[in-house]
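Cross-check.
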Amino acid sequence: MKFRLVRLAAAAVAAGLALTVTSCSLEDAGSGDTVKVVIGYQSKTINTVTAGTLLKAKGFLEQRLNRLSESGGPKYQVEWQDYDTGAPITAQMVAEKIDIGSMGDYPLLINGSRTSANEKARTELVSITGYNPKGALNMVVVSPNSPVRSIDELAGQKISASVGSAGHGTLVQALTKAGIDAETGVEVLNQQPQVGASALESGQVAALSQFVAWPGLLVFQDKAKLLFDGAELNVPTFHGVVARRDYANQHPEVLNAFLQAQLDATDFLNKQPLEAAGVVADNSGLAPEVVYLYNGPGGTSFDTTLKPNLISTLKNDVTYLKSIGDFAEFDIDQFADPAALQKAFAERGIDYGAELAKNTNPSLVTGADPVSGKAADNPALAGEIWFAGQDATQPASDPTSLLKAIKQARAQGKTVRAAYVPDAELGTRWFADKALWVRDGETYLPFTTAAAAQRYLAAHPSGVTVTYDQAVNEVRS
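Predicted model, tokenized:
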């Protein structure tokens, strides 16, 4: 990687943060009888929707603050600021312009580091929005006609990534795992996600490494194909919420209302995922099918608790951040403070410790598969089909049964809006028609990447690759 460019980019970010602090005048949190709270979010980073897009659209925070006002408290004013990545949210928090923000794990670390020098800007990690235990929320994609089939074939190529983001961190880890020197083996162009998407489409870069929802979006639009699934690293990746300590100390009732509202949004998403996906799609501009890929059952684990393995992941990420630029050490254990969230749980009569100990996805595919007659209760196999014109999905007990259901639907003239299956190796939820399929006897297995399919075939000589349409046409009903 031509890391001189990366280091310069990191230095530029630091300089930009400093400029923001010196050039912006500080605003009071409230004036007169009105208390203002400014929230930074990323509408298209759909792993943060329970603290951003969905939360904002449903009005859960405003409703809770209004109740405080009606009980004799001051009036509250909520200002929402939408950004593409976590970096500008951090810049505004350093400048004391944003009070609560949400972002991915690497940006969270940068946030804690950058704000630690100023007591009024200093932040704390107060909750998690969503996580994937293996890291499947970050992926590397290439153009649809690219001959590249594995990460090691990117040696010497130009790759787009947002330096300092979780997507970039995944790229560095993937390259290292493939034996490619992360500093000299490739050239990384530091680009915002949408800029990188355009660069990939125009052929300016060989690959794009980004966080949700960009990989799924580009693949869904037939503008890319998946090359590397972050789940191969088997390292958790997550998004969370940070709050300025100074603001939280002055207005603890606002932070409490925010966390209660986030729990409202989390419950709504986990209990009504399809409806929630529609709300997020309407308010983010993303296709509902893409939102549901990540926000649907078996996708992201939307769980607010600060799990020990996620905090450990933060600590392990420090090495990466130090490699790309200056990173001020700070106490991560103090940064991750569950006290406010524990209070919110207690007020709802929920045992925080019991929720903290849970490691399964709160939202999984359930129900009876009408084709196989079996329960769709195995997360490693269960998928679902979203038929056009229907406001509910049809569960499938396993990928083979899902193909049978689609074959029957085609014969009946039904249109499949989207179908979702878990990768046979890593469990990543993916689009059935974008998966790489292998037939082994009468069983059909979907994989997110060609490399994953090849690993299976190497261990199972009886398997053969088939296209999605071949699989649907030849599966025995």
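Residues 106 and 317 are 7 Å apart (CA to CA). The domain at 383-474 is CATH 3.30.450.410 (Beta-Lactamase). Passed to J.P. for a second look.
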